[in-house]
Amino acid sequence: MNSFYNKILFLILFLSFSACKKNEKTTSVSAATEKNEIEYSTNLSIHKYDGYSIVKVLNPWPDANKDFVYILKEKNTAVPDSLQKYTQITVPLKSIVVTSTTNIPFLEMLGVEKSLAGFPHTDYVSSEKTRKLIDAGIVKNVGQNERLNMEKLIDLAPEAIITFGIDNNNPMIANLEKNGLKVLIQADWMEQSPLGKAEWIKLYAALFGKEKEGKILFDNIVKSYNDALRLVAGEKAEKTVLYGSMYQNQWYVAKGNSWVAQFMKDAKSNYLWADTKGSGSLGLSFENILEKAKNADIWIATGSFKNTRELGDSNPHYEQFNAFATKNVYTFESKLGATGGTVYYELAPSRPDLVLKDYIKIFHPDLLPDYHFTFVQKLN
Known about the structure:
By secondary structure, the protein is α/β, with parallel strands linked by helices. Helix content is 33%, strand content 18%. Helix 7 runs antiparallel to helix 8 (211-231) and helix 8 (211-231) runs parallel beside helix 14.
């Protein structure tokens, strides 16, 4: 964000007083008049004003009983009295702690990864760029999400901690705030729209005063995604698709309104559980899966298997599927970082255009003859 221009003292006092009086009437969260900078996300809104932004995070976890509002303010900016009750974070940030690997690409895309002071369970990070910062001791390990190291966080004193909750009981978040740390809840993981997830880069852009750069980056992703959609616009969804694998006696398939199912729909495939209502996943018995998907053309398996032998060894019943017998099995989870983190889990939410192209390459390989998979590995 731009800093205020230097003005004579009288003018500063006069305009600041006037702005406060005016904004107090017009910048309530429920009736923000400035344009929302967010287009695709359903869980985030950013309204930018002169010297500050109002950030609202909606639906932060399933059945959430409240939303969250944050004020991102530049130094020496007067915030209206009506907004004083909300958490205020001074921007641009110089240091930050994030708690999900999905946040790492946003920082790198914006060129602010060196501002990352800490991360829980650093082995999960796959990016080579951020791994170098971890190995150099610049990024500290701050424990695990459910058991963050409070002493280390207090010592690091980051200007903001970006974290998430899974339900309405979040004692760790309350403990962080009790110790004077600025906490911002995000809900990118609740987004089901591929572009909606990726648009959370705009939050990080606002935190680091890089709104213009963030918009350009996101607009390029939107263009790339839409270009891929146009590529398959005339194709028929003929390939039948099985998704998932067994986990503790249950087979979890992606529901029809989920993030994963949207990719398969956009890539023009016939996903066999596309008509299942809701987002998230649905647990079914092996018998239910076999009955419906025994003759599926393609299997998108979950798990970091390297080949069909490994997959078959994990469950001998997998051999009953036609896709297994014909070796038309793919996984997005086989590519790992140096310390075992899954590249797909880290990068995919911020680059849905690459995920879509991977799916198109699976279902309509002739349309992308020169494209090489970003995340996918075919199990031979």
